[in-house]
Amino acid sequence: MNNSGIFSRENKTIFIVGPTSSGKTEIAHNLAKKLSGAEIISADSMQIYRNMDILTAKPTIEQRREIPYHLIDSMDLDNTYSAFDFHDDALRLVTEILYNGKIPIIVGGTGLYVRSLLRGIFQAPEANWEFRKDMENFVMEYGEIALHNLLKLKDPEAAGKIDPRNIRRVIRALEVFQFTGKKISELQQHWNKPYHEKHPVMGYLFLWGIFWPRRIMYERVNSRVDEMVQQGLVEEVKNLIGLGVMENTVASQAIGIKEISQYLENKISLDAAIELIKQNTRKFSRRQLTWFSREEEFKWFVLYKNADKNKIIDVMIEELKKN
To answer: N or C: which end of the chain has fewer CB within 10 A?
Structure first.
């Protein structure tokens, strides 16, 4: 069925977000097929890197033959890719896709990437990995609450919004203050602006999220990790280490690399490594949901066991027709 005619002269851009293992990629892909003229832009900070297929659950080669995908397999491991890079690349791609009369669908779970497109991105210092390592050592010695208390002294407003357990975000807020003298909470004020103020070229925005009840979500995460192991996760991580993934401070953060590395170094058993991956992925999915819950404009589709994803796609198409 060709639904490309549902689009008027007005530009329309679709966002589909959700935590890891939510099935957002499958839904976005099947929606794109039904729209017949859509292209998908990945908003996943790890799918940009080559040779990380199993770790990042990239769309299959067959799927990429059916629908054009962007910002997947675009970077080697000796390069780093930031939210600033994504903002510029994705905005250029959205503009090109719309100019060609097609439909951009931004799909992913990296909240900062999505927000950068919707609300813009502030100019902040690049990552200082020496500072971050010092802060990680501080956490190891004094604990995450002590680190969070440091942020309270520097930027109380940011500290009030960041969970102490989210060490990476706490460190980033401290890093911004350390190297600019400015509070990250002040720099983020423009995020309160309405979406359309930043990039009117995207036209009408359709903001959808995919969510499962927590118990089912955790089951999906555990099943996905088991599938990753069966698909050759250990071999992929071994290959990535040989390619120098541990030297890439961004790519090395992908869940699964450090855990499998510990197994390869005979520090833990394979079963222990797999359980760690499941545990860390579940924690990550909770953080993703916390991030996206702040985006009040998104409409969430709640799925349950045996849910018919085609019905969700039909609802999406009907909403596209109405607007």
So the answer is: N
What are 2's two structure tokens?
Answer: 């060709």
Dist CA 61 CA 241 (whole Å):
24
Mean pLDDT score across all residues of the chain = 88
Rounded Cα–Cα distance for residues 9 and 267 (Å)? 59
Per residue in 81-119, pLDDT (tens digit) is 888 899 999 999 999 999 999 999 999 999 989 988 888
Q: How do 299-302 and 103-108 pair as beta strands?
A: unpaired
**Quick check: 197 pLDDT over 70?**
no
Residue 48's nearest CA partner among 19, 25, 77, 26 is 77
Residues 31 and 1: their CA atoms lie apart, in Å, by: 11
Structure token digits, residue 142: 């004094």
> What residues contact residue 302 under an 8 Å CB cut-off, 6+ apart?
211, 212, 213
Closest CA to 113 of 17, 209, 49: 17
Structural domains of the chain sorted by starting position, each given as residue range(s) with its CATH number in brackets: 4-121+198-214+289-322 (3.40.50.300), 129-189 (1.10.20.140), 216-285 (1.10.287.890)
Task: Provide φ and ψ at 18, rounded to 5°.
Answer: 160, 165
CA distances from 128 to 155, 170, 197, 250 (A): 19, 14, 31, 12
- pTM check: above 0.85: no
